[in-house]
Amino acid sequence: SAVISQKPSRDICQRGTSLTIQCQVDSQVTMMFWYRQQPGQSLTLIATANQGSEATYESGFVIDKFPISRPNLTFSTLTVSNMSPEDSSIYLCSVLWTSGVYEQYFGPGTRLTVT
Amino acid sequence: AQTVTQSQPEMSVQEAETVTLSCTYDTSESDYYLFWYKQPPSRQMILVIRQEAYKQQNATENRFSVNFQKAAKSFSLKISDSQLGDAAMYFCAYRSGGGGADGLTFGKGTHLIIQP
Predict the structure, then answer these.
(1) For A65-74, what is each residue's pLDDT tens digit?
(2) Three-state SS for B84?
């Protein structure tokens, strides 16, 4: 399976600012995903990011609020823009591992607190 | 849209005993995959086990096994010989079939407590 890292691991941000979260994979992967896990809740898919194409957003998530970049096959970023306390969550990236069976593996997550 | 339901917010089991976590799902698709993920306090999501819908045989991974009832749309996880390290949130997840392009739909999770 892939080794996935995220930066930062946690951050405390002021309302109205933006934070960019980085996701790095040690192998080339076609598809990457970004999820949000609000406090005490389950994971919700934000968007799917393929290299070389625009990210595909799920209902309730918009590009202006959560712009995503996917410049190559091992890296992606998620920006949380104009933050409010409601954006306080864990943000996780995952990758689709296609060696044999298609499985998703997750990064360690970024814990964001907005004050 | 697919939905995944975990009706047990919390379960408790004695160390070395067996526990079963429940999951039901709703879908109109015939080709899909089901997963159980474990999330310990470190918050790292760990894939525990996977089941392909087209396979009748229940998946097993060491102490972890599933009871997949396709007609009933049920997908429970059995943990045998529970260990302290099994304590975590367990999430059931669904993914549509095909090339894996779809993300996962998760249930709300079950908090598993292991009593020594």
Answers:
(1) 999 999 999 9
(2) helix
